């Protein structure tokens, strides 16, 4: 079985949801959910956490011997630093190989989905240099100027009959060190494959409304109401 290194970057500060990475949700700090899913996937050989937070580093390092900490250098700290710069720093330290980057803000992602994504990534390498998670949308979309983007208002198709479009949902990204460099240090390469993630697992916490939704779904999963 081919395995990959998971990258799980986290910073202490959060603008819209203060302290969200360590804030407790359904009995656990937020980042524990996706970290546990990564560690539970047999396709993940290790998880590297790049962070500027000593509490996160100490907590995460004590969870498993397969968790490794990269202390974030000062020049990569701050809210305006591109994630691709963080990845470039980690890849430079770790060397050649294949990587999966995830976010702590995706607490509903499961080990099974992670494993499926890794398997699809390797199966598609002959034609694609990377893979990223997407959410299928079949709804009527408009531009900021009010123009229809994916439908004709004069022909009122049912939404289930519309041509689907896909939203990058930030759940996961797969790439190689070589492909990352070839794409000018970009986690999405020049011939990326899309990997569809179900809407429940794709929930990403950006604000308090997202937090409430994720918390509700985690509670439902704990009760066995959803998978």
TrEMBL record:
<keyword id="KW-0548">Nucleotidyltransferase</keyword>
<protein>
    <submittedName>
        <fullName>Acylneuraminate cytidylyltransferase family protein</fullName>
    </submittedName>
</protein>
<dbReference type="InterPro" id="IPR003329">
    <property type="entry name" value="Cytidylyl_trans"/>
</dbReference>
<dbReference type="InterPro" id="IPR029044">
    <property type="entry name" value="Nucleotide-diphossugar_trans"/>
</dbReference>
<keyword id="KW-0808">Transferase</keyword>
<dbReference type="GO" id="GO:0016779">
    <property type="term" value="F:nucleotidyltransferase activity"/>
</dbReference>
<dbReference type="InterPro" id="IPR050793">
    <property type="entry name" value="CMP-NeuNAc_synthase"/>
</dbReference>
<dbReference type="Pfam" id="PF02348">
    <property type="entry name" value="CTP_transf_3"/>
</dbReference>
